[in-house]
Design a protein that fits this description.
By secondary structure, this protein is an alpha+beta fold. It has helices at residues 16-20, 30-44, 65-75, 135-140, 161-165, 228-236, 262-277, 313-321, 407-411, 436-459, 615-618; strands spanning 2-7, 54-62, 104-111, 171-179, 185-194, 198-199, 206-214, 225-226, 248-254, 290-296, 299-300, 330-336, 339-351, 369-374, 380-385, 394-402, 426-427, 433-434, 495-496, 505-508, 512-516, 519-529, 536-546, 552-553, 564-569, 575-577, 580-584, 591-599, 603-612. The longest helix has 24 residues, at 436-459.
Length: 619
């Protein structure tokens, strides 16, 4: 392979350093953007006729001097451009590629995709002919070419610049199995580097700073190594092999720019991939759309699914519930002028500590109060922040997804990094201004305020509820009339108010939650104060299922096993089964607990009552 440096032509060109800055400012951690962009490109190239999920692999490789030789000799031909000033923002220090450098590479590979096919030169064929894909030419040579993928994640063709910025040498290596412009199988291998414009030391000609290592003999300037030679080069540098007739792409980010230990870096990009791309991994009806794998020198680390990541479960539940239009917290977002359905929103509550620790690579801090918005590719565009739940120990999340027919309207108000939706009316795909994304964000804000106002009404003040909700939908603790869990006692302690001054008093603490298979175990701690002069108290607990509108039923909706009181746990830890228990006045004092078993996807209402016991009941 030989080096080709691009000169400035008479009509000008974009400098390599300018290409590195095309994404502009970033709203997330840098490596989050790398993984977002890569996985988005992988999905845009997915084979529509595949029989299994698209596979994505990130393999962090460290090379010995001997193992690096095929990279230095075979790929770069022991020739690199003059390095840029180390003080520049994007150094493009090609000296890092030499054997004395770090000798590391992050290989990002996909399978069950179409690879990068079409012409292998930028000036071949009709540039905007969508019948023949131009993925290879657009990725390797072009910038800012419109996508040819319907409902794809990309819109500008600028996102790939983040791959170069991830490399201390601003250089990547590409190997793809694809079909050419005539539909014939092809294998291609090429390396690309970006740097600052400079003057050729020998001729003085101004150079753009864009470079390729490839075949300079067959092509007028440069093209990929092809066929068996391409496969041999890829195998020699540790890229994953292709099975017969398998298509896909492997991209090597040379000398990846990270500071921590290798295994910590790998865990970081794994967590980032899940936080930004988790909908691709959900198993809705059979296989998920994609599977992610992470490895170090070919040895895979444990696979994580979205529900394995602390804090992602509620988003997954909200996403899955969006398809239930009858759910009280699912909303169809509409625009009135012109009248258009824009997308669906689902909001969900769940128990959360008041000072939760921030999970690795979560793109926001503090309590969960965010709506994840996305388009048809099912990749999170952004987590939009909203007010916290007024109930201290309750978090909430939401998911909004634009309808397929509105996908391009939302895509066209995204910046090149695809990490936000502009609140300003922008030029839509037809060239006219579109305000649909702004309308959607405004309606989401209104619905969130209504959603939280319910918690404000039930979460504070006399006769209110604790407002605690379960992991997947929430358990609503409400008085239900008479003596229920709720109200406020001295110093803000939730209490069960007596119906008369001669009834026992119950002081309630925060509930405890455990999960057992497909059931939630709720433990409601409380202290009992007997009426002076009585023999004891009789405690009764009832639990009901809350349905839409606030009514209750004795059985759970959707045919699920209902909620049930399994008993009382006394201060000594002994379990007393049943919905009623008699507590003698001489029973050891301390904290009691009502134990309730309930399904995951129902709201429940607990009613706890206490009356003074007669002497006969105590005996």
């Amino acid at each position: 392979m030989k080096l080709h440096a691009e000169p400035f032509h008479s009509t000008g060109a974009m400098g390599g350093q300018g290409a590195l800055k095309l994404l502009g400012s970033l709203n997330f951690d840098f490596w989050s953007h790398v993984m977002r962009e890569t996985i988005q490109n992988v999905w845009d190239a997915a084979d529509p006729d595949r029989c299994s999920p698209v596979e994505f692999l990130a393999d962090l490789r460290t090379y010995s001097r001997e193992d690096w030789e095929p990279v230095w000799e075979g790929v770069f031909g022991r020739t690199v451009p003059p390095s840029n000033d180390r003080g520049s923002e994007f150094p493009g220090d090609w000296g890092q590629l030499k054997p004395a450098g770090p000798r590391k590479m992050l290989v990002l590979a996909d399978r069950n995709s179409n690879g990068m096919g079409g012409p292998d030169q930028a000036d071949s064929g009709n540039l905007f002919d969508t019948i023949v894909p131009r993925d290879f030419a657009d990725f390797v040579y072009n910038l800012g070419v419109p996508p040819d993928t319907k409902s794809g994640g990309g819109t500008y063709g600028y996102g790939k610049s983040v791959l170069y910025r991830a490399s201390l040498a601003s250089t990547i290596i590409v190997h793809t199995h694809c079909t050419d412009e005539l539909g014939r199988p092809d294998s291609r291998f090429i390396a690309i580097g970006l740097g600052k414009p400079y003057g050729d030391r020998r001729t003085g000609q101004p150079m753009t700073g864009r470079h390729w290592w490839g075949d300079t003999d067959t092509y007028g300037e440069v093209g990929p190594i092809r066929g068996d030679e391409a496969d041999s080069l890829a195998e020699a540098i540790g890229f994953p092999r292709f099975e017969p007739d398998e298509r896909g792409t492997s991209i090597g980010i040379t000398v990846p720019n990270y500071a921590e230990k290798g295994h910590e870096f790998l865990q970081r990009i794994q967590a980032a991939s899940l936080w930004h791309c988790w909908p691709k991994l959900l198993d809705e009806a059979g296989d998920p759309e994609m599977r992610f794998h992470f490895s170090m020198n070919g040895e895979r680390i444990p696979q994580l699914l979205p529900r394995d990541v602390d804090g992602l479960g509620p988003f997954c539940d909200a996403y899955m519930a969006m398809d239930d239009p009858e759910h009280v917290n699912t909303h169809l977002i509409r625009a009135q002028r012109p009248k258009r359905d824009l997308g669906r929103l689902h909001l969900r509550r769940f128990p959360e500590r008041e000072d939760p620790e921030t999970p690795l690579m979560r793109p926001f801090d503090g309590r969960s109060r965010h709506v994840a918005v996305m388009r048809t590719p099912n990749l999170v565009v952004r987590y939009y922040e909203h007010p916290v739940n007024p109930v201290p120990s309750q978090g909430w999340v939401g998911v909004f997804k634009a309808l397929p027919e509105m996908d391009r309207e939302f895509a066209w108000v995204e910046p090149p990094a695809h990490d936000s939706w502009s609140n300003d009316a922008g030029a839509g795909p037809s060239g006219t201004k579109t305000s649909f994304p702004r309308v959607a964000l405004r309606n989401i804000k209104t619905l969130v305020a209504e959603f939280l106002s319910v918690d404000l009404a039930t979460g504070s003040g006399t006769g209110g509820s604790l407002g605690e909700l379960s992991e997947t939908l929430g358990q609503l603790f409400s008085p239900g009339g008479g003596t229920g869990i709720g109200g406020s006692g001295p110093a803000g302690t939730p209490r069960v108010a007596s119906q008369s001054t001669m009834r026992p008093v119950i002081s309630v603490a925060d509930q405890e939650l455990d999960r057992e298979s497909d059931r939630l175990i709720h433990r409601y701690p409380f202290e009992l104060e007997h009426v002076p002069g009585t023999s004891g108290s009789v405690l009764s607990a009832k639990v009901e299922v809350v349905v839409v509108g606030g009514a209750t039923e004795s059985s759970s909706p959707w045919g699920l096993r209902g909620a049930e009181v399994t008993g009382f746990q006394d201060p000594c830890g002994d379990m007393l089964p049943g919905e009623q228990v008699v507590v003698p006045v001489d029973h050891p004092g301390g904290m009691w607990k009502v134990v309730v078993h309930g399904p995951l996807r129902t709201e429940i209402r607990l009613r706890l009552d206490a009356v003074s016991a007669t002497d006969e009941e105590v005996e």
